UniProtKB/TrEMBL annotation:
PANTHER family on file: CHROMOSOME-ASSOCIATED KINESIN KIF4A-RELATED (PTHR47969), KINESIN-LIKE PROTEIN KIF21B (PTHR47969:SF28)
Chain positions recorded as ATP binding sites: G69, Q70, T71, G72, S73, G74, K75, T76
A Pfam family of this chain: Kinesin
Name of the protein described by the UniProt record: Kinesin-like protein KIF21B
Subcellular location: Cytoplasm, Cytoskeleton
Chief location of this protein within or outside the cell: cytoplasm
Keywords on record: ATP-binding, Cytoplasm, Cytoskeleton, Motor protein, Nucleotide-binding
Species name: Acipenser ruthenus
GO cellular component, one term: microtubule associated complex
Gene Ontology terms, MF aspect: ATP binding; microtubule binding; microtubule motor activity
Any GO BP annotation: spindle elongation
Residues in Kinesin motor domain copies: 1-136
Recorded family membership: Belongs to the TRAFAC class myosin-kinesin ATPase superfamily. Kinesin family.
UniProt-listed SUPFAM superfamilies: P-loop containing nucleoside triphosphate hydrolases
Amino acid sequence: MAKEKIEGCHICTLVTPGEPQVLLGKDKAFTYDFVFDRDSQQHEIYSACVEKLIEGCFEGYNATVFAYGQTGSGKTYTMGTGFDMNISEEEQGIIPRAIKHLFQGIEHRKGEAQERGEQAPEFKVSAQFLELTNSL
Ligand SMILES: Nc1ncnc2c1ncn2[C@@H]1O[C@H](COP(=O)(O)OP(=O)(O)OP(=O)(O)O)[C@@H](O)[C@H]1O
């Protein structure tokens, strides 16, 4: 059982239905580009927040996805960097989804060029992975 449940912690946030807004307690509201409630699935987060960034890379745009939050808040889970080999496809997080999307996009563009009788474009992919911690 999760440590929070054992310690009797309560949920202290509420998502305003239909709004990208989080309510903290009774009177503090925070609005963001997107807000996902507890029952959100990995694929929903990917399609809403990341998919377009990968497509943007093919147009020459840079993109950053940054997970920030207190310990145990779900950064590793959401980013999909736990590299648990037994994880189901549904539960895969942002990074494996983004990598798959990127390489499928490359193959697709090469295939399209070949179909048009053009020279296949060249792609160079380099990867860096950073995990910053400031544990007290
Ligand atoms: N959306 C979710 N659905 C199901 N389980 C989740 C979800 N988010 C987090 N968890 C689970 O909650 C626990 C803590 O999450 P996670 O390790 O991702 O937190 P974290 O923010 O990376 O923590 P830390 O900063 O300590 O590394 C893990 O067991 C993880 O599998």
